[in-house]
Amino acid sequence: MPRIETFNREQVLQNAMQVFWERGYNATSMQDLVDATRLNRSSIYNSFGGKMELYQASLNKYLEDTQSQFAPILNSDKNPLDKIRSIFESFLSEIYHDSRGCMSMNCKSEMSSNEDLRKWLEITQEQTLTMFQQLIQEGQNQGDINKNQSCRVYAWHVFNSFQGFRMTGILEKQTGVLKSIIDNSLSILK
């Protein structure tokens, strides 16, 4: 008979995600996870399978949280170019108050040689590219974004700019600098 979980799985994932995000996979010990989740080792293994599986679940939690941050912007009445700008701007508060950067990008830097994680990273990258591509295509169709390049080429540019913006924000906290990065990154689309 399987054991019934007597803990709040969502809270455990949130706590584990914070530790992995702060330290990375390799620098996070099982004891760090025990301390953060308040679960014993056997509960972590029984419920998640191990450290790697908990890391993957934490990455999925991070992705869900990020996508929920995008949803109100994507569902707004703004034009597509303003939606893209709003996506960048929605991370300003995080950049000002947090120097951990993007957990997904941190994973790329640390763990891209792990085949399972590499596949996850490729899938999530494609999801973000597709989001930007759809916005750009819509903007091109409405005349708000130029057609000098294909929507896919522009999506790669915006995606790369977005990642660079998030990475720059680890050290740079000046509003003027960060907003000029957004302006310059998106000026190619006008």
TrEMBL record:
Keywords, in A-Z order: DNA-binding, Transcription, Transcription regulation
Regions recorded as binding DNA: 29-48
Keyword ATP-binding: no
The HTH tetR-type domain, residue ranges: 6-66
A Pfam family assignment: TetR_C_13
Keyword rRNA-binding part of the UniProt annotation: no
Name used for this protein in its record: TetR family transcriptional regulator
Native organism: Nonlabens dokdonensis
